[in-house]
From TrEMBL:
Residues 4-239 form the NAD-dependent epimerase/dehydratase domain. Belongs to the NAD(P)-dependent epimerase/dehydratase family. InterPro entries: Epimerase_deHydtase, NAD(P)-bd_dom_sf, NAD(P)_epim/dehydratase. This is L-threonine 3-dehydrogenase. One of its GO terms (molecular function) is L-threonine 3-dehydrogenase activity. The lineage of its organism: Bacteria, Candidatus Woeseibacteriota.
Length: 315
């Protein structure tokens, strides 16, 4: 088979997608590409390159006979606001480089969009698949523009590029990153290690979320769906859980009864308030059979059990 390339292989999604692809297709068929963040102990084919560097990418694609790319590199919402130009450069020029190479080498491509593509003028409850997209963060602008670019390359060049709008992703393997939904990971890290957590969002802030195993399954299932089933070429809405910060804290307290949580909303609250509360994912369900497995209690249990083991904290 032609090999699979994963860019951003050591980020939140990549760290879990790469082992899942290795398991499914064999270690020799998966190439993990990182740039600044690389796990030197990684067991598999490793490449170090900047996803904006067309020549390096071309060499990697040719040398490894790549047929599929999961292009995951992206700066998230909070980090994005600290340097909008860099965010545009990495998120958009990286994507365009991959799409151009996709046309040239007839690649099949996965690219993640996000609920950040929506904005305050989008209906926030049961957000439709096709709706107003007026994001107010540079990260969201790159996701919105990226969706348009993917759709354009499909129409213009027939490129098979597929995408989902990830909600906030919860995972225990990588520490919380520079995103707005990352409070939902921080509460586990700080709750278990310090017994207290100050949340940067209001207690009643409700956002769409998903346990990482469901996100990985969505990513692999959409890529395996028959071509004719993929009807949405900008990006599919997918949904699993929607909970408030307070509801998550109550669930975590079932495992850490003495946990103290307080709420000190900062500028990240504005970002959260511009995003949907719940998502309508009926088109993903209909077109390629999307379903989720992890509800709030199941996700909380897995997060606590794994992090307790990681931190050496007895139950
Ligand atoms: C973020 O919070 O920036 C991301 C996202 C929702 O895409 N997790």
């Amino acid at each position: 088979m032609k090999k699979i390339l994963v860019t951003g292989a050591f980020g939140q999604i990549g760290s879990e997608l790469v082992p899942a692809l290795q398991e499914k297709f064999g270690k020799d068929n998966v190439v993990a590409m990182g740039h600044e963040k690389i796990d030197e102990s990684y067991d598999g084919i490793l490449e170090k390159a900047d996803s904006r560097d067309k020549n390096s990418l071309e060499t990697i694609i040719k040398n490894h006979d790549i047929g599929t790319v999961y292009h995951l590199v992206s700066l998230l919402s909070v980090k994005g606001e600290t340097d909008p130009s860099l965010t545009w450069d990495i998120n958009m020029n990286g994507l365009k480089t991959i799409l151009d190479l996709g046309v040239r080498f007839d690649l099949k491509i996965f690219w993640p969009s996000s609920i950040a593509a929506f904005g305050p003028s989008t209906p926030r409850d049961n957000t439709p698949q096709h709706t107003v997209l007026e994001p107010t963060t540079i990260y969201g602008v790159t996701k919105y523009a990226g969706e348009g670019l993917c759709r354009y390359y499909n129409i213009k060049y027939g490129l098979d590029v597929r995408s989902v709008r990830y909600p906030g992703i919860l995972s225990w393997k990588t520490p919380p990153g520079r995103g707005t939904t990352e409070y939902a990971i921080e509460i586990f890290y700080e709750g278990l290690q310090k017994g207290r957590y100050t949340c940067f969002l209001r207690e009643d802030t409700k956002l769409p979320m998903m346990y990482v195993d469901d996100a990985i399954r969505a990513t692999i299932v959409i890529m395996e769906a028959p071509l004719e089933n993929i009807k949405v070429r900008n990006s599919y809405n997918i949904a699993a859980l929607s909970f408030t910060a307070g509801e998550l804290a109550s669930e975590v307290k079932k495992y850490i009864p003495n946990l103290e949580v307080d709420y000190k909303p900062d500028k990240r609250q504005l970002i959260a308030d511009s995003w949907p509360r719940t998502i309508d994912d009926s088109e993903a369900k209909k077109d390629w059979g999307w379903t989720y497995e992890y509800d709030l209690p199941k996700m909380t249990k897995v997060m606590v059990e794994n992090l307790r083991r990681e931190f050496g904290i007895p139950a």
